[in-house]
């Protein structure tokens, strides 16, 4: 498969990075209204619900991209791997945890904590992942990266059939079993627990990580790809409708279909990944070199944008009114999306002019 652009970047992976970071921003700018009101019949709520629902693929796709890219590398030195892959994640985690914690304490909560009290609380919140909502992703990806020296050997030693077996079992436990458990709890208010399905290696984000590697390296049969893509398209429509009925039934926002392990989220992520993978050659042919360079630049900045975008959003985004009209709501949300993304990208590029700042804030990424 001809995956590479002229600058050795993979265009469909770059496109997925950009679309996913835009989706993350959508998740956060719509979350305010969705959690602020329980009136599920307003136009503003429905628009926010639809946008939030269709953006839910973002986090799984980021894990899939990471798996596709990092598991293909050969880990020859644990020390070099930690220095090159994990340290550039750990440093920004501490830096941005400090920035967001200070902003929250002194600008939002108007706290009177002394410097000593602040740092004592900060260290505690850093350890237990309680500094800011979106930084959980760094904890999760660092945890997975720690396993990469072993997992990369494992996936390379496995045949396609063996990897497929792993993914099917992971899907059954992490996606299907969780879906059935959630449904039973909502209908019967009873939790179900099947001890035999408590298999750690087949639970969690590692499955998305290995799924990305599998889809990147192995060509699925046309019928399977078509089926997965079509289920993904249906899931884009089902998620907001299912969320409405689940929320209406419970009286508060029900995020069952919003979750990263939701069955609809899974198929949306896989369908989107396969769609852009299929369009890779066409994208390479139709996009001129300057556009491809811009795409590469924005994709390289996606991690940095992820870190900084909530700070930008807190500073410049406009509040969406719960009783707003459709044009007003759409305009405000799209304006917030555009401003947060563009300003975040520009600020990242400016900060990248200083190598020390780039290393401290973004782990050396641009």
From TrEMBL:
Cellular component terms per the entry's GO annotation: plasma membrane
Topology of the protein relative to the lipid bilayer: Multi-pass membrane protein
Residues annotated as domain Acyltransferase: 11-345
UniProt record, GO biological process: enterobacterial common antigen biosynthetic process
Annotated GO MF terms: O-acetyltransferase activity
Transmembrane segments: 12-31, 43-65, 86-103, 132-151, 163-180, 192-215, 227-246, 258-276, 297-317, 329-348
Compartments in which it is found: Cell membrane
Family in the record: Belongs to the acyltransferase 3 family.
Alphabetic keyword roster: Acyltransferase, Cell membrane, Membrane, Transferase, Transmembrane, Transmembrane helix
Superkingdom of origin organism: Bacteria
Protein's name in the database: Acyltransferase
Species for this entry: Paenibacillus elgii
């Amino acid at each position: 498969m001809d995956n590479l652009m002229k600058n050795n970047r993979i265009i469909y992976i770059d496109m997925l990075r950009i679309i996913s970071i835009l989706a993350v921003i959508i998740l956060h700018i719509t979350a305010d209204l969705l959690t602020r009101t329980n009136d599920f019949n307003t136009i503003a709520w429905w628009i926010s619900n639809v946008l939030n629902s269709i953006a839910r693929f973002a986090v799984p796709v980021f894990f899939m991209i990471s798996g596709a890219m990092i598991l293909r590398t050969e880990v020859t030195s644990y020390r070099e791997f930690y220095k090159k892959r994990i340290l550039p994640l750990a440093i920004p985690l501490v830096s941005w945890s400090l920035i967001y914690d200070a902003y929250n304490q002194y600008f939002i909560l108007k706290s009177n904590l002394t410097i000593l009290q602040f740092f004592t609380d900060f260290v505690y919140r850093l350890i237990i992942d309680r500094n800011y909502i979106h930084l959980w992703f760094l904890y999760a990806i660092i945890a997975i990266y720690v396993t990469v020296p072993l997992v990369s050997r494992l996936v390379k030693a496995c045949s396609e059939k063996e990897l497929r077996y792993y993914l099917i079992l992971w899907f059954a436990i992490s996606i299907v079993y969780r879906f059935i458990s959630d449904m039973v709890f909502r209908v019967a208010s009873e939790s179900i627990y099947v001890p035999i399905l408590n298999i750690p290696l087949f639970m969690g984000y590692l499955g998305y990580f290995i799924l990305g590697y599998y889809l990147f390296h192995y060509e699925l049969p046309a019928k399977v790809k078509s089926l997965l893509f079509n289920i993904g398209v249906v899931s884009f429509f089902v998620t907001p409708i299912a969320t409405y009925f689940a929320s209406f039934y419970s009286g508060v926002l029900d995020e069952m279909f919003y979750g990263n392990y939701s069955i609809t989220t899974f198929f949306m992520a896989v369908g989107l990944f396969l769609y852009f993978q299929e369009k890779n050659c066409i994208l390479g042919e139709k996009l001129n070199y300057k556009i491809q360079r811009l795409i590469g630049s924005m994709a390289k900045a996606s991690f940095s944008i992820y870190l900084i975008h909530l700070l930008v959003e807190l500073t410049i985004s406009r509040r969406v009114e719960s009783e707003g009209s459709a044009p007003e709501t759409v305009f405000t949300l799209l304006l917030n999306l555009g401003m947060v993304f563009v300003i975040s990208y520009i600020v990242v590029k400016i900060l990248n002019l200083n190598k020390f700042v780039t290393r401290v804030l973004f782990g050396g990424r641009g």
